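Budget justification aside, the reviewers requested a transparent look at the raw inputs and outputs of the sequence design task funded under Objective 1. We therefore reproduce one unedited record. The lines immediately below are the structure tokens for a 187-residue chain.
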């Protein structure tokens, strides 16, 4: 049984990564925040009596299910009523910035020159853009394996598919990213 401190520490350790992963999947920061918060609440309410070692996989599975539920709700809503704001450009350019979450041991990005920081930001923006272009299942497998650092079996459990499917999705994602990034001059 996980203590309150263990549960709180676990949730603090995964909140940013869970948000970023969900944001990649749903492509809506507000919805991603809601999904992550709902998953955290569900974990705390329904699985507080589980050992701390089980929390990571439980949370990943809850988060995946919550994300899939969101997609199902969106599909139903879009079938009933077309939201005209989907056809308009976004006025707010505020997005989650990966550079803000990258810290060194001293608590800052390091001693990069302005040109290096701009180059790094442009490269990360291109990578972010290409990851968002991946099909949903490939993107999910890629993020779980390489962002969340889950192994193949854990990823398969979270995604609700076979290990072979995880390997296929990851392979296709890596090859697609490599091809598109190479075409943009990123090796």
């Amino acid at each position: 049984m996980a203590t309150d401190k263990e549960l709180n520490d676990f949730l603090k350790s995964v909140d940013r990564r869970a948000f970023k992963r969900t944001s990649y999947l749903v492509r809506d920061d507000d919805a991603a925040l809601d999904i992550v918060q709902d998953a955290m609440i569900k974990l705390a309410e329904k699985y507080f009596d589980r050992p701390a070692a089980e929390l990571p996989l439980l949370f990943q599975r809850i988060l995946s299910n919550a994300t899939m539920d969101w997609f199902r709700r969106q599909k139903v809503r879009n079938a009933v009523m077309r939201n005209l704001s989907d056809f308009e450009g976004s006025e707010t350019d505020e997005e989650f910035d990966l550079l803000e979450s990258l810290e060194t041991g001293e608590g800052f990005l390091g001693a990069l020159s302005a040109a290096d920081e701009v180059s790094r930001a442009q490269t990360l923006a291109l990578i972010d853009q290409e990851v968002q272009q991946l099909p949903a299942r490939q993107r999910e497998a890629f993020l779980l394996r390489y962002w969340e650092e889950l192994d193949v079996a854990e990823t398969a459990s979270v995604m609700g598919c076979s290990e072979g499917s995880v390997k296929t999705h990851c392979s296709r994602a890596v090859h697609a990213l490599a091809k598109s990034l190479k075409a943009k001059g990123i090796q």
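Confidence is low (pLDDT under 50) at residues 80-91, 96-109. The two ends are 46 Å apart (CA to CA). Computational costs for records of this kind are itemized in the attached budget.
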